[in-house]
Amino acid sequence: MNGNWKLWRAQIAAIMRLEIRKSFLNRRGVVIYLLALMPVIIWVLHIFVMRARGRQCNFAEDTHMFAMIFQFFFVRLFIFFGCVAVFMNLFRGEVLQKSLHYYFLAPVRREVLLAGKFFAGLLAAVTIFGASVLLQIAALLGHFDSTTVSQYLYQSGGFGHIIGYLGVTLFACLGYGSVFLAMGMFFRNPLIPAAVVLIWEGISSILPATLQKITIIHYLQSLAPVPADPPKGAIPLQILVFVSDRTPAPVAALGLCVLTAAVLVVAAWRVRRMQIDYAAE
Amino acid sequence: MTGEIVFNDVSKFYGDVLGVNRVNLAIPQGITSLVGPNGSGKTTLMNLMTGLIQPTRGSIDVCGIRPDEPEKLFQVAGYCTQFDSFPKGLTGYQFIYSYLRLFGMTHADADRRTVAALERVNMAEAAPRKIAGYSKGMRQRIKLAQAIAHDPQILVLDEPLNGLDPLVRAETIALFRSYAREGRHVIVSTHILHEVDMISDQVILLNGGYILAEGQIKAVRDEIQEHPMQILIRCSRPQSLAAKLFESDYVVEARLHSDGAGLLVKTRTPERFYLALNTIALNGINIETVAPADDDANSVYEYLIGGEEPTR
Ligand SMILES: Nc1ncnc2c1ncn2[C@@H]1O[C@H](COP(=O)(O)OP(=O)(O)OP(=O)(O)O)[C@@H](O)[C@H]1O
Ligand SMILES: [Mg+2]
């Protein structure tokens, strides 16, 4: 058993190296980098616009704004579509390119292959979007004076918030990653299932409590370090962000892990039955 | 590796399309050639024994290993597929090296074996280049290098000689023979039997998803000679032709074609029959065409096996 783990670790590492080289260190990765860069650009633009108008930014307003942008746009759209791009193609892309048999001809358990690909996607997504979060925060904090910043970081729990944002990013990649990995094994055309998930996640807050437990955004909102209260009267936003019952953070983290594991079990079942059927394309 | 590759009443359907049907086989060590025309099921059989596809019915056993256990199977087996597609952006070296790393090998081991495999197929020079820029023959050779890189006891090779020039072809065949001499299983597919008849220890003839014949090439040839061959003759007066033919020794059976404008003849000695037909035709019967009957397995045999005995 011990020997098996050692072998599996070596195999997973080999798969990850190959995946990273094939998919993320080349032109195909550009879409994901652009997605991750966009919120950073938004913040930089914000600062320039405020400067140009000769107005002073308000720290409390900006951090609140940050929490909102993070939840409404970054997690729900940017990480979401980033994960579509990264994970949906892990298997589907190889079927389209007719290269999946390369892996199937190696003495690798199909489950190990799945794990290797998933971790490769996770590493890429978390690195890219984690870097994006840090850049966004750097842009946000960068245009305030150092006393305000250090007071925020050391006295108002700023470091905790940053860790929290990074944590939500990690969990978002974990949750959405597993879902899109599995979907890429079941569907030829990724757009329709992705749209269905987008809507499902979008209406999460008006779903009954039990159904909410099988949305990813429910857990992510419960994990958010700073609650994002939408401005009064912004009804579409209120629907998006309204949390009927915030699950305590550790429970939410556990719940998301269970959800991810369940999806990966389905994916493992699927990958064991996958056949090389390129001719049928 | 002792043991056989056993197919137990295996059928494979792709939806409604037949891949192979009711296959029973036991493939021993040595070189086995799978011979059949396009679409006869050669690739299907090879994909089945390597677990790339699963049988619709029946079971397969590869020297004691089930094909759905890749972690065991590919420790001892290598498969050179017919697929002409590769993971994107890899060089020839990376293609083999990364494959070996999937085994869990260390960098040093994988590097050493990669170099050895590349040399074995004469691809050392082209190895640093991207596969995307390879010629057909080079792609064929790099796939072969992948199949042999881990020194497998069972080699499954789907049309491995395709696109190779005569010199490389001879070298590759020599490689297969040396593997066979070492007691390995070497399974090679082709649609041109004479390409491999000299080296095959046994042949399996396939057509339309069915096994027509299997065994040592001599026995397969004899079996075909025992089977009468069916020939369709289109002519002006089939009845009188039939009467004449019955007088000759070469015809086993002759009957009118259902449309009334031809004669279906069975013979064990087609060459002599053709000769005899020439003299008959001189006697006022107008013969339009003479051809093996289409739906006849023997015409496929003829096509596959050709007339001559193998020269060993
Ligand atoms: N993925 C698939 N989907 C549907 N039908 C398929 C598929 N793969 C093979 N077939 C069908 O199964 C039959 C056998 O095909 P197979 O590829 O095994 O033949 P082959 O002997 O390898 O032919 P070739 O000499 O052209 O390589 C053919 O009728 C083919 O159309
Ligand atoms: Mg084929």
SSE map:
The complex is a heterodimer of chains A (281) and B (312).
Chain A: H1 2-24, H2 30-52, H3 59-96, H4 101-104, H5 110-142, H6 146-154, H7 158-186, H8 191-202, H9 209-212, H10 216-223, H11 235-241, H12 249-273
Chain B: E1 5-14, E2 17-27, E3 30-35, H1 42-49, E4 57-62, H2 70-76, E5 77-80, H3 92-101, H4 107-120, H5 136-148, E6 154-157, H6 166-181, E7 185-190, E8 202-207, E9 210-215, H7 217-226, E10 229-235, H8 238-247, E11 251-256, E12 262-267, H9 270-281, E13 287-292, H10 297-305
Parallel strand pairs in B: 3-7, 3-8, 5-6, 6-7
Antiparallel strand pairs in B: 1-2, 1-4, 8-9, 10-12, 10-13, 11-12
Adenosine-5'-triphosphate (ATP) sits between chains B (14, 17, 19, 36, 38-44, 82, 191) and A (277, 279-280).
Question: Would you mind describing this structure in some detail?
Answer:
The complex is a heterodimer of chains A (281) and B (312). By secondary structure, chain A is an all-alpha fold. Chain A has 12 helices and no strands. The longest helix of chain A has 38 residues, at 59-96. The radius of gyration of chain A is 20 Å and the shape is globular. The relative contact order of chain A is 0.13. By secondary structure, chain B is an alpha/beta fold. Chain B is 35% helix and 27% strand. Chain B has helices spanning 42-49, 70-76, 92-101, 107-120, 136-148, 166-181, 217-226, 238-247, 270-281, 297-305, and strands at 5-14, 17-27, 30-35, 57-62, 77-80, 154-157, 185-190, 202-207, 210-215, 229-235, 251-256, 262-267, 287-292. The two termini of chain B are 26 Å apart. Chains A and B meet through helix 1 and helix 4 of A and helix 2 and helix 3 of B. The structure holds adenosine-5'-triphosphate and magnesium ion (MG). Magnesium ion (MG) is lined by residues 42-43, 82, 158 of chain B.
